[in-house]
Design a protein that fits this description.
This protein is an alpha/beta fold and 338 residues long. It folds into two domains: 4-82 and 102-182, Rossmann fold, CATH 3.40.50; 223-335, Up-down Bundle (Zinc Finger, Delta Prime, domain 3). It has 15 helices and seven strands. It has a five-stranded parallel β-sheet, with helices on both faces. The radius of gyration is 22 Å and the shape is elongated.
């Protein structure tokens, strides 16, 4: 599907069809619809009777197979955690009273090997084969190197559509084998209009918290964890009175990436106010609390804390002890105001 703000991006992608690169890397901010754009483009490439603007007809045999997830010349590679019906982070009881392993958040080497084997044979319908991989940064080094060999010597009639939020985490060697396509972030007006059409309440605050990404805002509005995240934001405004250990106890059910994300956005706003470079971007309704906190610390401490958060986010999906990570980072936050 196409979102209302993707019209220009679609026209640019369609213009590439006459000289389609073997690997196209779609990148941009998280939550603006890059994956859906890539999947829609893949369907359009495989469609037997595309519309005048290149969009799929949704009525031909190829479109029917695509929508059912069994087109013989289409492959999608993604972490198990993103598969339809995949469970959450917590382990659940399996047969015999044991525990079932949580779905993987990385693209495993076995998946890459299976893909290489698949594209090594001819297409089934004597046309294009399209492969979508997302998020590309979920590839580990071994898998990325294996994929690189395929990109260096691409199979005939095969197009790779790669998607990432984090261009900085993609191997430079892979970047050099792809044509990069920057996906446009929607304007605030377009994002707000779409969120209202989805029935989201308090759209301005939701969009600000999501950094202008409408899909992130929609997901946050529907998430069960949102009240807990709002509670955490209220506690962060306590500055030196912030009870780090009690906060870690309260929010331990939240995923570590969600907690670190809130802290990163809050710290960004604190730095903006401390440096006098503008108003709060992510938490405009907390302007007064942010101003009090900014007045109780300094830019040097905030920058050092922000750098630590960046380091923690590199391994946020695999913390050795999530509770200890939260306690440690919350204690460091409180020290900003001592």
């Amino acid at each position: 599907m196409l979102y209302p703000w993707q019209r220009d991006d679609w026209l640019q992608l369609t213009a590439l069809r006459d000289r389609l690169p073997h690997a196209l890397l779609l990148h941009g901010q998280q939550g603006i619809g890059k994956r859906d754009l890539a999947l829609h483009f893949a369907q359009g490439l495989l469609c037997e009777t595309p519309l005048a603007d290149g969009q799929p007809c949704n009525t031909c045999g190829a479109c029917h197979w695509f929508s059912q997830g069994n087109h013989p010349d289409f492959s999608v590679v993604r972490p198990e955690a993103l598969e339809a019906g995949a469970g959450g982070d917590a382990e659940s009881d399996g047969e015999g009273g044991g525990k079932k392993k949580a779905p993987s958040k990385i693209i495993r080497m076995e998946q890459v090997r299976a893909l290489i084997e698949t594209v090594g044979v001819g297409t089934h319908r004597a046309g294009l084969r399209v492969v979508v991989i997302y998020p590309l940064d979920a590839l580990q080094t071994e898998g990325a190197n294996a994929l690189l060999k395929t990109l260096e010597e691409p199979p005939p009639s095969t197009v790779f559509l790669l998607v990432t939020d984090r261009l900085d985490r993609v191997l430079p060697t892979i970047l050099s084998r792809c044509r990069q396509f920057s996906v446009t972030r929607p304007t605030s007006a377009a994002a707000l209009e779409w969120l209202r059409s989805q029935g989201v309440a308090d759209v301005e605050a939701q969009l600000a918290l999501a950094g202008g990404a409408p899909l992130t805002a929609l997901h946050a509005a529907e998430a069960e964890e949102q009240p807990l995240q709002r509670w955490l934001v209220g506690q962060l405004g306590s500055a030196a009175a912030f009870d780090a250990l009690a906060a870690a106890e309260q929010v331990q059910k939240l995923p570590v990436p969600a907690v670190l994300g809130v802290l990163q956005r809050w710290t960004y706003d604190l730095l903006a106010l401390c440096l006098g470079t503008g108003t709060a971007r992510y938490f405009p309704k907390e302007q007064a609390a942010l101003a009090r906190c900014a007045g109780a610390t300094d830019a040097h401490r905030l920058q050092a804390f922000a750098a630590r958060l960046v380091g923690l986010r590199r391994n946020e999906n695999h913390p050795l002890a999530a509770r200890l990570v939260m306690e440690s980072v919350f204690l460091d936050y409180r020290q900003l105001f001592r």
